[in-house]
From TrEMBL, chains A, B:
<dbReference type="GO" id="GO:0004177">
    <property type="term" value="F:aminopeptidase activity"/>
</dbReference>
<comment type="similarity">
    <text>Belongs to the peptidase M24B family.</text>
</comment>
<protein>
    <submittedName>
        <fullName>Aminopeptidase P family protein</fullName>
    </submittedName>
</protein>
<dbReference type="Pfam" id="PF01321">
    <property type="entry name" value="Creatinase_N"/>
</dbReference>
<keyword id="KW-0378">Hydrolase</keyword>
<dbReference type="InterPro" id="IPR029149">
    <property type="entry name" value="Creatin/AminoP/Spt16_N"/>
</dbReference>
<dbReference type="InterPro" id="IPR032416">
    <property type="entry name" value="Peptidase_M24_C"/>
</dbReference>
<dbReference type="InterPro" id="IPR000994">
    <property type="entry name" value="Pept_M24"/>
</dbReference>
<dbReference type="InterPro" id="IPR000587">
    <property type="entry name" value="Creatinase_N"/>
</dbReference>
<feature type="domain" description="Creatinase N-terminal">
    <location>
        <begin position="8"/>
        <end position="125"/>
    </location>
</feature>
<dbReference type="InterPro" id="IPR050422">
    <property type="entry name" value="X-Pro_aminopeptidase_P"/>
</dbReference>
<feature type="domain" description="Peptidase M24">
    <location>
        <begin position="304"/>
        <end position="522"/>
    </location>
</feature>
<keyword id="KW-0479">Metal-binding</keyword>
<dbReference type="Pfam" id="PF16188">
    <property type="entry name" value="Peptidase_M24_C"/>
</dbReference>
<dbReference type="InterPro" id="IPR036005">
    <property type="entry name" value="Creatinase/aminopeptidase-like"/>
</dbReference>
<feature type="domain" description="Peptidase M24 C-terminal">
    <location>
        <begin position="527"/>
        <end position="587"/>
    </location>
</feature>
<keyword id="KW-0645">Protease</keyword>
Length: 595, 595
């Protein structure tokens, strides 16, 4: 076979190294949700661009494992004559190996790209896993993009709310208490939080790719490309030992001898375990303690979220006022607004805000049936018009200097069918049920998830995504560890936690509905917590069957809209103010006007 | 020290065997919830009669570990100068050993009374666990009650709904599929289900203490005291190899050589692991597959539950009609009904039902402040009067020939305070919220638990017990594995599951409220399940703030009461029928009468 394709090149490489197979995961060394082009080996190999997946290349065949979300997408992107598509969870790769390969096959893998549990699953199969101690793709991926080299900037203490020195002492105390000598940190947002810096290696992921070691005295060694530090004031790295990322494993080995090294049980590369064990050290598997410190925001961070939500709310209202005025007119005139046009206009309104930096994630601007795909992003090929007969769903947010926003509104520009109104009302009722729920201290997200689904369940419907996720502070839009979802999540929602609440409903090829607010968890009655809303954007009530709302639900909506109106009226453009007042009028006024 | 006390006797024994300590758990070899007197070593040693606990006896001191439920009770029952009381979960015994004993202490334990995870926790501590291969208590517990020898009876196929032969073939198929050679069964209800028998070793626990081995061909070896089989038709044991319980470990060892033996990960004694490993066999830790087969009831069993609930409902109505007539009169006359009298009267009404066998658990008949203790049982010393100014809570059930019942009603015989009415209404609303909830296939109890708590949470209140448990078929009142509770339970609620729904509220030293129905899980809309009620007992509406009920809640109550009325009217005593009609009248009639 002549190695003109990536697949052919990998097979030649396998042969040269005596491997029967090679695993190619969609992963970088940080287990990032978004991958830099340099790290996206799976996309290079297969063409598949989804956010999770794994290829197994064998001499005579190749397999691509993707999860349920991507079964359709993969058919469009991948040459399925070269790659047989399998389900990532129904028959995981280790199980497939046991079922279909003879024992003892030598399967290569990169231990910097694999977590410990992934490795253990592979090891429990009857293949012989072969750890590669280099990156074999450098030799065969000729037009490989350069490793990202995003500039790192300081997050000032007055916005972070706590100095890096104080954070390091908190971590050091946690290590002393746990009897751990070193903590090895590979999660980019944990490093960004600890050092009060932000990065720019991957678009809309303002965290630096790097590694870090911290010991019981709070001494920090940072393994980061020197070039990324060019714009950073020297004070930031004054008490930090700087090394190249390539020195990280060697240094872990050196630290490990006779010592206890804490590794993140879910995210650390198994290469770290190998390094520690080779050096005679012992691994303490735990959650990186920084994850939890970072998750409970301090008062300065919380005030930053609130301020950025006021700015984002004003941008939303300016956008919505424009949209509600223009969309029906343009549709009637036969020149409808498109998804991409709406998205660009919204960005322009955000850019008017002084503290806005960039979108916090890829905007979902989805009209009609496009919104039925939860992960849709508009492109020139898919760009649909916003019409008076279909929902338009917008899920977007911004990075502001002092916080991060994420919200979804589903809008209509004319009367919709009874089914659409019923489903919109059910999503709204689920949203209201959860956002108004008090819950005892120590409650976890999986205990609350059903509350947001009940109105849909009563219609025999459901939605196939989580109900809420954490949001970083000027950081990742999906922040660990808390989550509100069906799946068990052991981390309680405590005061200072930032979450989204975003139930939805999706009817394939027809429409999608989602309503999302960002909230902070605050203290409630003694022993209880509650959600306090951060998002300040009117909820479209035109499609609500108000007869299905309880008095309490109507009261919450009216209170919320009054808060939105009072807060945003001074901040929005003058030509948006009338719309804001109409959109936030009490329900009896709105439904009176409708009748 | 002269061994006149149990503690002294144990210390002498420890010295004779070279032990520094001895663990005495509240456990039998089946990890039963209720212990036979013969097995209750902890009660003999300490006086403590709670259902969970553990003593650690050392030469110079002794400790008793009990959980939060029992911190008060233990003070009444135990000589705390002899036994220092510790918290079972806050500082588990293995952690206490690490914190307070020097390393290497020889701590004796009985491996038939300890699960594998309990053993692993002990082994991870720095003591030296010493497994005792006999029961050391025989030598020192001179007035020890005999081992239970309850007669075993047949559960006819026409009531069980499936022959034992068919069940054994299903288990054998599961073993073949799992690649397991033998399954060792120690759970009494799993043995009872598999063999279609019932036992009587512990009061109100109609399951036999015994052990069982089954192989891939479905061959069964039953390790059971011969005396228990005297009344059993020979057909029942025809294809079964019978041995004495004492032969079980030896036989496990013989089976284990070169074989895979499945042990229940949560309940098997660690002695089985030792036996398998000593023989060179390998242990497959899993849930006993019988547990899940047993949990999904067949149509005949389900019809049996329904029939037994009709009988139990009739007994309840006869009792409630009598009680509602007599209680206020007797209170006014200065000769109030007492908890014990009510309990006896209720039993008499149950005994009028032809298919009634015995109570399915210790009745909770609790007036006023006694009901604030969730696990209260009336005694001559605590026996309170039923008055017109306080709630009376009754939680009771029956074993019927074809099913098992469990229900709670909270009653009042006069107007109560606004706070009591509010709390009663909140408990009722939580009960209604859960019993009316449809949920997708695969949903687990921990996902639904909050639904029953929300009305209490909205008042800043909660209750400190699970919301629902499984109920065996003519078997244990608390049946594994499903559970509706805050704690994660990985077993989904599927059609054929039998559960209780029993939210409550308890104000210490004042009152307790609980409303409990037993339900079966049935298919709902496509892809969904729902609860169908089994319990047929009017819900006391006199204390409900009906203004706080939604139209849907009222409709459910009226529908339910109509079902109760229609089903039970032909079954109750003639003098109870008028009360039944009044108690099940539609809400607008009842509240009209009240107003």
């Amino acid at each position: 076979m002549h190695p003109t394709t990536p697949l052919g090149a990998l097979r030649a490489l396998m042969q040269a190294r005596g491997l029967d197979g090679l695993l190619v995961p969609r992963a970088d060394a940080h287990q990032s949700e978004d991958c830099a082009p340099h790290d996206n080996k799976l996309a290079w190999l297969t063409g598949f661009t989804g956010s999770a997946g794994l290829a197994l290349v064998l001499a005579d065949r190749a397999l691509l494992f993707v999860d349920g979300r991507y079964q359709v997408q993969v058919q469009h992107q991948v040459d399925t004559t070269a790659f047989a598509v399998h389900h990532l969870h129904n028959e995981p790769v280790a199980q497939w190996i046991d079922n279909h390969l003879p024992p003892g096959q030598r399967i290569g893998f990169e231990p910097m790209l694999m977590t410990n549990s992934q490795y253990e699953a592979l090891r429990a199969s009857h293949c012989q896993p072969v750890a590669l101690d280099d990156d074999p793709f450098d030799a065969v991926w000729h037009d490989r993009p350069a490793a990202p080299c995003g500039v790192i900037t300081e997050m000032p203490d007055e916005i972070a709310g706590e100095s890096s020195a104080d954070k390091r002492q908190r971590v050091a105390a946690a290590l002393r208490e746990a009897g751990v000598d070193y903590l090895a940190v590979t999660l980019p947002d944990n490093i960004a939080w600890l050092l009060n810096v932000r990065g720019s290696d991957v678009a809309m992921n303002p965290v630096p790719h790097s590694f870090l070691l911290i010991n019981q005295q709070g001494d920090v060694e940072w393994f980061v490309a020197q070039e990324k530090l060019a714009q950073l004031a020297p004070e930031v790295t004054r008490n930090i030992t700087l090394s190249a990322p390539g020195a990280f494993l060697t240094r872990c080995r050196a630290c490990a001898a006779g010592n206890v090294i804490a590794l993140d049980a879910d995210f650390s590369p198994v290469a770290l375990r190998f390094a520690v064990e080779q050096a005679g050290g012992s691994v303490r598997w735990q959650s990186d303690p920084i994850t939890w410190m970072k998750a409970l925001k301090n008062p300065v961070e919380l005030e930053g979220y609130r301020a950025s939500h006021r700015e984002d709310g004003a941008a939303w209202v300016n956008f919505l006022a424009w949209l509600h005025h223009e969309a029906p007119l343009r549709d009637a005139a036969g020149d409808p607004i498109t998804e991409l046009e709406a998205q660009q206009k919204q960005l322009a309104f955000r850019q008017q805000r002084e503290t806005f930096i960039e979108p916090s994630f890829n905007t979902i601007s989805a009209a009609g049936s496009n919104a039925a795909m939860c992960h849709y992003h508009a492109s020139p090929e898919t760009n649909k018009p916003l019409t008076r007969s279909e929902f338009y769903l917008n899920d977007s947010g911004g990075q502001y200097v002092n916080g991060t926003t994420d919200a979804t509104r589903t809008l209509a520009f004319g009367p919709l069918t009874a089914a659409r109104r019923l489903h919109y009302t059910a999503v709204l009722k689920g949203f209201l049920a959860l956002i108004t729920l008090p819950f005892p201290n120590g409650t976890c997200g999986h205990q609350l998830d059903a509350v947001a689904r009940r109105p849909l369940w009563e219609l025999g419907l459901d939605f196939d995504h989580g109900t809420g996720h954490g949001v970083g502070h000027r950081m990742l839009i999906h922040e660990q560890p808390q989550r509100i979802a069906k799946k068990v999540n052991p981390w309680p929602l405590l005061p200072g936690s930032i979450m989204t609440i975003e139930p939805g409903y999706y009817l394939a090829d027809q429409y999608g509905i989602r309503i999302e607010n960002q909230v902070e968890v605050v203290e409630g009655a003694p022993g209880f917590c509650r959600f306090s809303t951060l998002t300040l954007i009117p909820i479209d009530l035109n499609q609500v069957e108000t007869g299905l709302l309880s008095a309490q639900e109507k009261a919450w909506i009216d209170d919320y809209h009054q808060q939105v109106r009072d807060t945003l009226a001074p901040l929005v453009n003058s030509d948006a103010r009338a719309w804001l007042f109409a959109a936030t009028a009490p329900l009896r006024v709105q439904t009176g006007a409708q009748a």
